[in-house]
Structure formats: C-alpha cells, structure tokens
Amino acid sequence: MILIATIFVLVTGGVYLLLQRSMVRAVFGLGLLSHAVNFVLLTTGVPGWRTEPITDGTSTVTVADPLPQAFVLTAIVITLATSILMLAMAVIGRNDNMLRHPETGETHRA
C-alpha cells in the first residue's frame, strides 16, 4: 500500500511540474515521472516472497526475475542523459529573444 501511495505521489507531482511553464520544472517533472515508472517496473518483477536471483541452492521458480531490474537500470541511465540534455538546452535557450538582433559590433554599409 505504501508503494502504491508513493507511485501516486510521484505521478501527481511529476504531472504538476510538467505542466509548468519553466523548462527546469518540466525537467524535474519528467524525472519524477521516470521514478514512478521505475517503481512500477520493480513492483511487477519482484514480488515480496521471491528471493535474490544469485543464491546457493534455491530453485529457479522462487527467484526474482532479473529482467525488470535490468529495465530499471537502463531507464535510470537514459533518464539521467535526457535530464542533462534538457537542462543544457534550458540554459542555452534562456535568453533567446528573437525580437532584437544581438549586438555584434559590425556596421552595415549600404
């Protein structure tokens, strides 16, 4: 029940931040949504009664499925790279004003 409530809070906060006008808040919202999806993936692949995949003598029926854990690890890396790219784009495009041309010091001769 606590995990479901955590997923609900993460999704709610992520959607709220994603709907804001600020690019940085949208990046944080995307990160929260990613964490919620990671929790969902982990809950589908690792029930509480299963054991670790590498042990000394358990049968293959009772061990946890390592595939969702690999998906979550890959999703964490992809989310980190996407967040860094989006934050860099937010910094670069912060003062993007197309109404006025930048001052270059050059003069135009007719």
TrEMBL record:
InterPro entries from the entry? Answer: CPA3_antiporter_subunitC, NUOK/Mnh_C1-like
The record lists the lineage as: Bacteria, Bacillati, Actinomycetota, Actinomycetes, Propionibacteriales
Q: What is the recorded name of this protein? A: Mrp complex subunit C1
Cellular compartments annotated: Cell membrane
Task: Name the membrane topology term.
Answer: Multi-pass membrane protein
Q: Which Pfam families match?
A: Oxidored_q2 (PF00420)
Q: Return the GO cellular component terms, semicolon-separated.
A: plasma membrane
* Encoding gene per record: mnhC1
TM spans (from-to): 70-92
The record's family statement is:
Belongs to the CPA3 antiporters (TC 2.A.63) subunit C family.
**Source organism of this protein record:** Arachnia propionica
Q: Which UniProt keywords apply?
A: Cell membrane, Membrane, Transmembrane, Transmembrane helix
